[in-house]
Automatic annotation (TrEMBL):
The keyword Cytoplasm applies. Belongs to the Iojap/RsfS family. One of its GO terms (cellular component) is cytoplasm. This is Ribosomal silencing factor RsfS.
Length: 124
């Protein structure tokens, strides 16, 4: 099973929103074969809590424009690792330290990557 077209649309929209707010290391994975609860993960990082919050706010705004609201949001107050669960996709915005420590991309490396458009630029 692969991610639905709608999940891919949400994934690309979330990645673009993160890119607009200068997120680093933006990646997306199709986790539909591994998890029954969601189709895709979007990973993004930022060097400080304020930027994590800014990225999260932009992702929520852009996905709301598509008619999607998060079913669950965790970690927003701390701003170190914010998880936005939209059902079909889960967006992880992490402080760079958490991103390096937890290395979600290594955990999910066996899952296929979702190709992101050229306008999704990850800051270094």
């Amino acid at each position: 099973m692969t991610a639905t077209e709608h999940a891919i649309e949400l994934t690309i929209t979330a990645a673009r929103a993160a890119s607009e707010k200068k997120a680093g290391h933006i990646m997306a994975f199709d986790v539909s074969d591994q998890l029954a609860i969601t189709d895709a993960f979007v990973l993004a990082s930022a060097p400080n809590e304020r930027q994590v919050q800014s990225i999260v706010d932009e992702v929520e705004l852009k996905l709301r424009d598509l008619g999607s609201k998060p079913l669950r949001r965790e970690g927003h107050k701390e701003g170190r690792w914010v998880l936005l669960d939209y059902g079909e996709i889960v967006v992880h915005v992490q402080h760079e330290e958490e991103r390096q420590f937890y290395a979600l991309e290594r955990l999910w490396r066996d899952c296929p990557s979702i190709a992101l458009p050229a306008d999704v630029v990850s800051e270094s």
